[in-house]
């Protein structure tokens, strides 16, 4: 029997490892898919079909010179990329990757498919994910240079406004499920129906807000290469830049995982044996595969939208957030409440 | 004159931008399986026009003789002064001694060459040709000073009938007595 702590550590290592692997390959997928959409081939020189490109990129980042400009605030400048990276890694802890893994030779009880089965699940996600903005604000401020500064200002305004929509858009979900625990949300969907069908407006608003939260096009104003050089990471190089880069894609992964969990049934599929907790190891592993497949669909959607839609203007972005989405979410909560009250009565 | 631009009246559905966004998404998706236009460059060279001016090179006639007679016209006409010719005398006992001069060395500085093609145009012997090589690279400056051997290697054989040994009534070059006749003409 392996002690519980060790099991947890192995689980954490697996989750972080798989997540960073997917994140690295998302970068490759981004380049490949954008190339296909533009009738190009994309990176195909490193390894078969360019599949080793992420390794080459990583190696390049490691060996690049780490420039620390003399005009920056060194402490915060070094701290910022870490703060940008870490929230994404922490939030994935409460997202259920699978139902449970039944391995009698390792532990008596089935191993749950989530690292931390918190009852406040989604609140924890919002609490930690909103820390991500500090990484960007600090980077913009500590760089002591105008373009990063403008990028930092934009991103703080953007992330704070869309945080509101993001939070409010999932309220109907929890009104329907009656729990904030993400594992329970998935089980509810496995037994009833996917919440994406009953709460389409929530899904839509969450999706759009997730684009804004992860600084992806059409809302990538903090970076906005054409106007702000590189935005908040203009002054960064080498591994520090790579941290921002990974942080952005990791945030994308977390957003995709959350959407899959909240709206598309997480690890479940609407038929047996995928609509209940796994009783055998194989089904447990299949649950994880289903979850990852759903996440990959969302990641593809992120990339697909990025290479389709042009960037919003800054005032349009704020107008959309405050004047349209916040009233819409409130309306959504109201309607959901009324409908739920009528149904349960 | 002012022109009134008629702005189309958008429906509420259109004003949400959603139809256009969905149309755009469909458009980009449609392109994923379509034919790709990438040229895999170092393996696939681009098709060049026949008159493309690439690297200047020296050519040989079909008998393998250097056509250049070191008249140095190309050296004089070259705008960036990229050509340096070291002429030498053709030995009197050579079978084609009527040529009199030949290049001992012929250097083209590829870093200075501007590919204008004046050398090709000015050459009375049609001995210098701009080939289609366009990617001329090297690690040192010396490497890019193309000497006679390298230029001849790049130029190869030019299968045309303009030879300095050719004169009116000359037999075909593969005739057995051709060198003798050449020598006779030189004696005249």
Can you offer a commentary on this structure?
The complex is a heterodimer of chains A (345) and B (188). Chain A is 66% helix and 1% strand. Chain A is built from 14 helices and two strands. Chain A has helices at 4-37, 53-63, 74-91, 121-129, 132-142, 146-169, 171-177, 182-191, 195-198, 200-213, 225-228, 238-263, 281-306, 314-344; strands at 100-101, 111-112. A two-stranded antiparallel ribbon of chain A has the order 1-2. In chain A, helix 1 packs parallel to helix 13 (281-306), helix 3 runs antiparallel to helix 4 (121-129) and helix 6 (146-169) packs parallel to helix 14. The mean pLDDT of chain A is 84. By secondary structure, chain B is α+β, with helices and mostly antiparallel strands. Helix content of chain B is 24%, strand content 13%. Chain B contains six helices and five strands, in the order ααβαββαββαα. Chain B has helices at 12-15, 18-31, 73-77, 118-122, 148-155, 178-187; strands at 56-58, 83-89, 101-109, 128-130, 145-146. In chain B, strands 2-3-5 form a three-stranded antiparallel β-sheet. The radius of gyration of chain B is 29 Å and the shape is elongated. At the A-B interface, helix 1 of A face helix 2 of B.
Helix count of chain A equals: 14
Rg of chain B over CA atoms, rounded to whole Å, is 29 Å
User: Overall pLDDT of chain A, averaged?
Assistant: 84
Helix-strand topology string of chain A: HHHEEHHHHHHHHHHH
Low-confidence region ranges of chain A: none
Main sheet attributes: strand count, strand direction, barrel closure of chain B: 3 strands, antiparallel
Overall strand count of chain A: 2
| Total strands of chain B | 5
Order of adjacent strands in the largest pleated sheet of chain A: 1-2
First and last CA, distance of chain B: 84 Å
Largest sheet of chain A: 2 strands, antiparallel
Strand line-up of the largest beta sheet of chain B: 2-3-5
């Amino acid at each position: 029997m392996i002690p519980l702590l060790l099991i947890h550590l192995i689980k954490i290592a697996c989750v972080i490892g798989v997540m960073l692997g997917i994140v690295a390959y998302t970068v490759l997928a981004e380049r490949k898919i954008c190339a296909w959409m533009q009738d190009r081939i994309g990176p195909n020189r490193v390894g078969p079909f360019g599949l080793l490109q992420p390794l080459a990129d990583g190696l390049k980042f490691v060996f690049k010179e780490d420039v620390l400009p003399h005009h920056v605030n060194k402490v915060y400048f070094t701290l910022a990329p870490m703060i940008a990276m870490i929230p994404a890694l922490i939030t994935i802890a409460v997202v259920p990757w699978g139902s449970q893994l039944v391995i009698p030779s390792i532990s008596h009880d089935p191993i749950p498919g989530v690292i931390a089965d918190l009852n406040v699940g989604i609140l924890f996600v919002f609490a930690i994910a909103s820390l991500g903005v500090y990484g960007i604000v600090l980077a913009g401020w500590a760089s002591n240079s105008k373009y990063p500064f403008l990028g930092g200002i934009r991103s703080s305004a953007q992330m704070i406004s869309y945080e509101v929509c993001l939070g409010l858009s999932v309220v109907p979900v929890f009104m329907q499920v009656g729990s904030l625990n993400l594992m329970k949300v998935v089980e509810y969907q496995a037994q009833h129906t996917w919440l994406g069908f009953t709460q389409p407006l929530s899904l839509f608003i969450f999706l759009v807000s997730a684009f804004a939260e992860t600084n992806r096009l059409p809302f990538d104003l903090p970076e906005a290469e054409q106007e702000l050089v590189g935005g908040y990471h203009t002054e960064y190089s080498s591994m520090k830049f790579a941290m921002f880069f990974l942080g952005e894609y990791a945030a994308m992964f977390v957003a995709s995982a959350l959407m899959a969990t909240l709206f598309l049934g997480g690890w479940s599929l609407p038929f047996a044996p995928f609509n209940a907790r796994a009783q055998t190891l194989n089904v447990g592993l299949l649950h994880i595969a289903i979850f990852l497949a759903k996440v990959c669909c969302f990641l593809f959607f992120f990339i697909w939208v990025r290479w389709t839609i042009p960037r919003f203007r800054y005032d349009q972005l704020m107008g959309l957030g405050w004047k349209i989405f916040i009233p819409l979410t409130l309306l959504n909560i109201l309607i959901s409440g009324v409908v739920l009250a009528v149904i349960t009565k | 004159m002012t022109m009134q631009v008629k702005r189309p009246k958008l429906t509420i559905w259109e004003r949400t931008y959603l139809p256009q966004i969905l149309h755009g998404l469909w458009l980009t998706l449609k392109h994923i399986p379509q034919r790709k236009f990438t040229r895999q460059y170092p393996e696939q060279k681009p098709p060049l026009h026949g008159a493309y001016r690439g690297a200047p090179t020296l050519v040989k006639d079909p008998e393998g003789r250097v056509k250049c007679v070191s008249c140095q016209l190309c050296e004089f006409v070259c705008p960036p002064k990229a050509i340096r010719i070291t002429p030498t005398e053709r030995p009197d006992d050579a079978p084609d001694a009527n040529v009199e001069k030949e290049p001992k060395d012929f250097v083209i500085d590829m870093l200075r060459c501007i590919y204008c093609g004046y050398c090709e145009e000015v050459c009375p012997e049609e001995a210098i040709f701009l080939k289609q090589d366009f990617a001329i690279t090297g690690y040192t400056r010396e490497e890019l000073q193309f000497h006679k051997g390298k230029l001849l290697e790049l130029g190869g054989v030019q299968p045309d009938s303009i030879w300095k040994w050719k004169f009116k009534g000359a037999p075909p070059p593969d005739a057995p007595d051709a060198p003798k006749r050449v020598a006779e003409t030189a004696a005249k």
